[in-house]
Amino acid sequence: MPAGLGMTNFSDSSALVQAKKQIKITAIKAMQLDFQFDGCLIKIETDAGLVGYGETGVDSKIARAHIEHLDWALQRARGGSERLIGADPLSIQRHFYRMTEMHYPLPAPMGTISGIDIALWDLAGKILDQPVYKLLGGPFRDGCPMYSHGSALENMLDPASCRKWAEHIKQQPEGFNSFKIGTGFPLKQVTHEDGFKSYNTGPGQVEGPFYPTVTSAELRLLKEGYTNIREAVGDSIEIGLHCHGEFNTTSAIAMANTVEPLNVVFIEDPLNPQYSEGWAALKRGTKLPVMTGEKLETVRQFKQFLDAGAVDFVHPDISYAGGFTGCMKIADYASITRTPVALHNVGTLVRTYASAHLSMAIQNFYKSESTLGESSGRVLDEMSSDGPAVVRNSILKVSDRPGLGLNLDEKFLKKHLPKGEPWWG
């Protein structure tokens, strides 16, 4: 039995067995929130009144088109018997297989399938009165270890700015002890009040999709910036070098080797997301651990990196890589080579809670990305009617309530509907 379905945790009581026979999926809906930029919410409704929530890796217009296409394609299979509408919501592995094995007229839309899968697991937990992580076979740990971003750091070339940021993160109640920070490229000259001119290399994002080969001058400034950060935060804070697929292999190796002596824990996504020999060359060319995977889909795409020994961490996003079902398969395959699994996440509380449940059930887990506690993530504090998510000492408390343990606040959802977006599609 695949790890994705810990069937030994499913109750065998006669009432639940009867409920499983009766409950059917009646609708799959998508809806956009105005602060989402890489996904939308999914709601699966049933004839029993129970609903499951998920989050996709595509916007609501694309998701609704995908849902329509999936339903059309599945109607053609076995005389319509594979349709999700009218199906048993607990047949999750079967649904995942049928949706992901589609060949035409379009490839399987993994961003939407991921959101559907998350919603099915949330629904399964509510039907069976169990938190998702228990249905997945967990827990391996108590809570979800998380890392954050250096978004509040203004200028890494200014030691005073770095010390200000170090003091800021120490005062935050979440207690994050791991952060990823950008290169600060492209360099921008800044004129200070006293007329002194310097280059600003804050944590800003490179303007992609391609960046010129990094120069020796840029490498010197990168070293200066990361030295300032390390001196400001000391040795107790983990720092990762954050990229977005903009660099060539030569630049990636040079940047990795520049910051490696400063006890940086990884370089993330410096190369084109798809596998190439460049990734293996990067791994051979540096001692700095290499992380990638936020835009990869299912175990098939991660397999190339793992088989080549080209990464030290895989980094799937549960809303892109196949939901719970797909990510459990990725984690199982990564465990063969003892490769740790981190999770990419800049989504809503739905994706955050889903990532947290997934983390509980993965033996080879590292950390999950989070925007909680940041200015950009404060909107999430109002998303649940049960109050904000609780992060202490860099660990998110995972609920033992059924499903994801998340009660969405309808007033909040309606408040954040974009203009023209219909209520649940």
SSE topology:
Layout: H1 14-22, E1 25-31, E2 41-46, E3 51-55, H2 60-75, H3 92-100, H4 110-128, H5 132-135, E4 144-149, H6 159-171, E5 178-182, E6 188-191, E7 197-200, H7 216-233, E8 238-242, H8 249-259, E9 266-268, H9 277-285, E10 290-292, H10 298-307, E11 313-314, H11 323-336, E12 341-343, H12 349-360, E13 365-369, E14 391-392, E15 395-396, H13 410-415
Helix pairs in contact: 3-4, 4-11, 6-7, 7-8, 8-9, 10-11
Task: Give a short summary of the structure.
Helices cover 35% and strands 15% of the residues. The chain is α/β, with parallel strands linked by helices.
Describe the structure.
The protein is α/β, with parallel strands linked by helices and 425 residues long. The chain folds into two domains: 127 residues, Enolase-like, domain 1 (2-Layer Sandwich); 263 residues, Enolase-like C-terminal domain (TIM Barrel, Alpha-Beta Barrel), CATH 3.20.20.120. Helices cover 35% and strands 15% of the residues. It has 13 helices and 15 strands. Strands 4, 5, 8, 9, 10, 11, 12, 13, 14 and 15 form a ten-stranded mixed beta sheet that branches. A three-stranded antiparallel beta sheet has the order 1-2-3. The N terminus is likely disordered.
